[in-house]
């Protein structure tokens, strides 16, 4: 809400729920209590019903019944004045037709290795809500922004091979919080983002395998992070001026070995204080400014010719 206030927003005209995991829709009832939401966009039915999420989805259905609700498929547009928002993925399907100017052969496809096991959870990859993610490409003048929710490593291949259907991006908000279960070279390196933002937590995202791919992306100017990540340590991160939140005064140099998921695991350190954000302000010519709300650090990125 602080970020919305800072941006001068008094209502949300269109809200895209990428998929029905708690970290993407769990806060929706609280959000809807604080700001009017006029249009809800999603991928359709939940493929992972569970006792923890079903009550939230019943509240969600009550909310969208009162206003407008759209289920999108790849290629659809989300109608926002001044922007061109195109759906790249939804409900397990990816777009088949390249965006204007895109569609060249993707050189990273040749060395792609599909995942049979999720490298984070150790579980066989399958048909979870992550694969259903609504992914979008947004154009504002010459500025291009990509966010694919938690779209998975193997779905990145479907979307980006053999031809790169998206083209190049100015800003890429990373997939799946910067975990190595997404963010393959076929996606990241082919998008050639000038800036990536990782919406990671202290113990979710930022692992060395993901950071190596993100930080070696051709043409990358900067990576900004929502949190310091223990999983990356100081070895696999960026200067603190590019990071919005830290729950601990000191981050060890070495990456932390992630704890086994499950009820026996100590929760990550709580975040009860002020929450800071990364702000992107784009211009029609493709130039943009990124700001860290914690320390006020700003950086300008000029317009480029493609
Ligand atoms: Zn997620």
Features:
single chain; 306 residues; alpha/beta; nine-stranded mixed sheet; 7 helices; 15 strands; 20% strand; binds zinc ion
Would you mind describing this structure in some detail?
With about 300 residues, the chain is an alpha/beta fold. Helices cover about 15% and strands about 20% of the residues. The strands form 3 sheets. Strands 4, 5, 6, 7, 8, 9, 10, 11 and 12 form a 9-stranded mixed β-sheet that branches. The protein is globular, with a radius of gyration of 19 Å. Zinc ion (ZN) binds near residues 24 and 177.
Write the layout of secondary structure elements.
Blueprint: H1 2-6, E1 15-16, H2 22-25, H3 28-34, E2 39-42, H4 54-66, E3 68-71, E4 77-78, E5 84-90, E6 93-94, E7 135-140, E8 143-147, H5 153-160, E9 171-173, H6 185-191, E10 195-198, H7 208-215, E11 222-227, E12 243-245, E13 278-282, E14 288-292, E15 298-301
Parallel strand pairs: 1-2, 2-3, 8-9, 9-10, 10-11, 11-12
Antiparallel strand pairs: 4-5, 5-6, 5-7, 7-8, 13-14, 14-15
The site of zinc ion has 5 residues, from helix 2.
Radius of gyration: 19 Å
Q: In whole angstroms, how far apart are the ends?
A: 36 Å
What overall form do the CA principal axes indicate? globular
> How can the largest sheet be summarized?
9 strands, mixed
Number of helices: 7
Count the beta strands: 15
Give the uncertain stretches in residue-range form: none
Helix share, percent: 10-25%
- State the order of secondary-structure elements, H for helix, E for strand: HEHHEHEEEEEEHEHEHEEEEE
Output mean pLDDT.
Answer: 95
Strand content: 15-25%
Bound molecules: zinc ion
Which structural category fits the helices and strands? alpha/beta
């Amino acid at each position: 809400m602080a970020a919305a206030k800072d941006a001068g927003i008094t209502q949300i005209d269109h809200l895209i729920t990428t998929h029905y995991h708690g970290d993407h829709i769990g806060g929706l009832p609280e959000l809807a209590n604080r700001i009017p939401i006029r249009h809800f966009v999603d991928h359709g039915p939940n493929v992972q019903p569970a006792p923890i999420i079903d009550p939230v989805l019943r509240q969600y259905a009550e909310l969208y019944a009162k206003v407008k609700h759209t289920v999108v498929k790849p290629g659809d547009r989300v109608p926002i004045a001044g922007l061109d928002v195109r759906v790249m993925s939804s409900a397990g399907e990816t777009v088949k037709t390249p965006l204007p100017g895109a569609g060249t052969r993707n050189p990273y496809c040749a060395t792609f290795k599909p995942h049979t096991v999720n490298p984070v959870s150790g579980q066989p990859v399958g048909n979870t809500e992550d694969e259903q993610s609504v992914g979008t490409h947004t154009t504002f003048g010459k500025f291009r922004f990509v966010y694919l929710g938690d779209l998975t490593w193997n779905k990145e291949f479907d979307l980006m091979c053999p031809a790169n259907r998206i083209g190049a991006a100015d800003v890429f908000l990373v997939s799946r919080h910067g975990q190595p279960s997404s963010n393959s070279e076929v996606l990241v390196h082919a998008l050639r983002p000038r800036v990536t933002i990782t919406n990671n937590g202290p113990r979710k995202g930022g692992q060395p395998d993901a950071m190596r791919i993100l930080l070696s992306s051709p043409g990358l100017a900067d990576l900004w992070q929502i949190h310091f990540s223990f999983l990356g340590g100081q070895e696999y991160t960026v200067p603190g001026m590019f990071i919005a939140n830290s729950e601990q005064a000191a981050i060890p140099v070495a990456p932390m070995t992630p704890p086994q998921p499950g009820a026996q695991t100590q929760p990550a350190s709580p975040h009860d204080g002020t929450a800071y954000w990364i702000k992107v302000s784009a211009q029609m010519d493709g130039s943009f400014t990124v700001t860290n709300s914690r320390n006020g650090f700003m950086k300008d990125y000029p317009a480029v010719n493609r």
